[in-house]
């Protein structure tokens, strides 16, 4: 009986055509999934870049920031004055509604700041509703008081935009007390915002760093706002119809954010209701361009 030689190559038997086809299909599907993942990643990067370019530059709405004090001792107007003085080349303008606009040639960015009435819940909610960022002012006296704690709870319920946590007054303390004071404020901060950092703003350099952070920070999505066009009124003018004092045309100017606005859609004015638009104009921007 002859034994098979070890040098003889053994050919496999017939392979089913169906199994080959299935293998090719499997390989094709895996490659398709890989390409699809790459395309989705590229699309997300492009969307993130587009969102970043849609704010702050020339020809687009400025970064809108709401300054919200969380303690009765904190003065948001004083904080804004420091930010306005952080760069000698900054162009400062104010709207008729009291909003502060800062054009910063150093960064080629534009910023708008709104200060709601301290302690006014509805004014604070309205400001946070349209703001891209919120600067939360903490106090060296415990971080925030009872009113500030309640305000944070309400803001969380509505939807808080990207927040920057600021404390002032550390530079005025003796060197030995600064670390302990910062530790106490950080403790209050982490009870509401675990992992967030506290920023001290006492010098002009701190103000510049704050403006850079506002421009570069990641925007927190708020679905109910991002899916609709919205605007903070820079100027408001009522033109009554002839012979009628209570009926007329309301002219509202401001930067449109979110989705595009159609003249055929209804607009909602808080506290007044829904109205049909007559026309949309493109007035000159009140801020300096680069």
UniProtKB/TrEMBL annotation:
Residues 1-56 are annotated as: Disordered. One of its GO terms (biological process) is maturation of SSU-rRNA from tricistronic rRNA transcript (SSU-rRNA, 5.8S rRNA, LSU-rRNA). InterPro entries: AARP2CN, Bms1/Tsr1, G_Bms1/Tsr1_dom. Residues 44-53 have a biased composition (Basic and acidic residues). PROSITE patterns: G_BMS1. GO terms for molecular function: GTP binding; GTPase activity; U3 snoRNA binding. Residues 61-220 form the Bms1-type G domain. One of its GO terms (cellular component) is nucleus. This is Bms1-type G domain-containing protein. It comes from Rhipicephalus sanguineus (Brown dog tick).
């Amino acid at each position: 009986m002859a034994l098979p030689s070890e040098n003889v190559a053994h050919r496999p038997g017939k392979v089913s055509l169906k199994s080959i086809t299935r293998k090719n299909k499997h390989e094709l599907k895996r490659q398709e999934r890989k390409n699809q993942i790459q395309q989705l990643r590229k699309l997300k990067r492009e969307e993130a870049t587009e969102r970043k370019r849609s704010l702050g530059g020339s020809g687009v709405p400025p970064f809108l920031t709401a300054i919200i004090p969380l303690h009765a001792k904190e003065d948001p107007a004083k904080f804004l004055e420091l930010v306005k003085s952080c760069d000698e080349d900054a162009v400062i303008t104010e709207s008729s509604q009291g909003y502060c606009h800062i054009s910063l040639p150093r960064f080629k960015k534009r910023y708008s700041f709104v200060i709601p009435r301290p302690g006014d819940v509805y004014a604070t909610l309205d400001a946070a509703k349209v703001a891209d960022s919120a600067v939360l002012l903490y106090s060296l006296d415990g971080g925030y008081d009872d009113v500030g704690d309640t305000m944070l709870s309400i803001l969380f319920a509505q939807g808080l935009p990207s927040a920057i946590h600021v404390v002032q007054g550390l530079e005025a303390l003796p060197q030995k007390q600064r670390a302990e004071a910062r530790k106490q404020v950080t403790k209050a901060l982490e009870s509401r915002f675990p992992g967030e950092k506290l920023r001290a703003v006492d010098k002009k350099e701190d103000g510049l760093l704050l403006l850079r952070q506002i421009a570069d920070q990641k925007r927190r999505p708020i679905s109910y706002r991002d899916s609709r066009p919205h605007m903070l009124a820079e100027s408001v003018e009522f033109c009554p119809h002839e012979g009628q004092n209570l009926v007329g045309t309301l002219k509202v100017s401001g930067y449109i954010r979110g989705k595009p606005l159609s003249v055929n859609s209804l607009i909602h004015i808080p506290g007044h209701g829904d109205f049909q638009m007559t026309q949309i104009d493109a007035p000159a921007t009140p801020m300096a361009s680069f």
